[in-house]
Write a structure and sequence with these properties.
Number of helices: 0
Structural class: mainly beta
Largest sheet: 7 strands, mixed
Strand content: over 45%
Number of strands: 11
Shape: globular
Radius of gyration: 13 Å
Order of helices and strands: EEEEEEEEEEE
Helix content: under 10%
Length: 127
């Protein structure tokens, strides 16, 4: 059974920073790409960032490029999302996800490529 548990969300003022973490268990972590997605009530899940199994490749949504950094520590089975210069539009529940197939990197922006999801952590940015 694969489990993903996010933490690090909270309430922050615009311009502030947060660091999200996602601890994975039940899978050979370092063989799978991972991603962060976010969702607001009534909206579709939105791609935020993705990282390859080795950490050598990353991808970002245009809306967060230059402000967010995705990284991973395979020794700790942990995925991170450093979020700087936060904006009210970043307010959402953030979910981490792990790909369904090992050693794949293509189409990382599609939620359909991910086999397991965490419950999410809420990020609220006040203006």
């Amino acid at each position: 059974q694969v489990t993903l548990v996010e933490s690090g969300g909270g309430l922050v003022q615009a311009g502030g920073s947060l660091r999200l973490s996602c601890v994975a268990s039940g899978r050979t972590f370092n063989s799978y790409g991972m991603g962060w997605f976010r969702q607001t009530p009534g909206a579709e899940r939105e791609f935020v960032a993705a990282i390859s199994w080795s950490g050598g490749g990353t991808d970002y949504a245009d809306s967060v490029k230059g402000r967010f950094t995705i990284s991973r520590d395979n020794a700790k089975n942990t995925l991170y999302l450093q979020m700087n210069n936060l904006k009210p539009d970043d307010t959402a529940k953030y979910h981490c996800a792990i790909r369904g197939t090992p050693l794949q990197t293509f189409d990382s922006r599609s939620s359909a490529r991910y086999g397991y999801w965490g419950q999410g952590t809420q990020v609220t940015v006040s203006s």
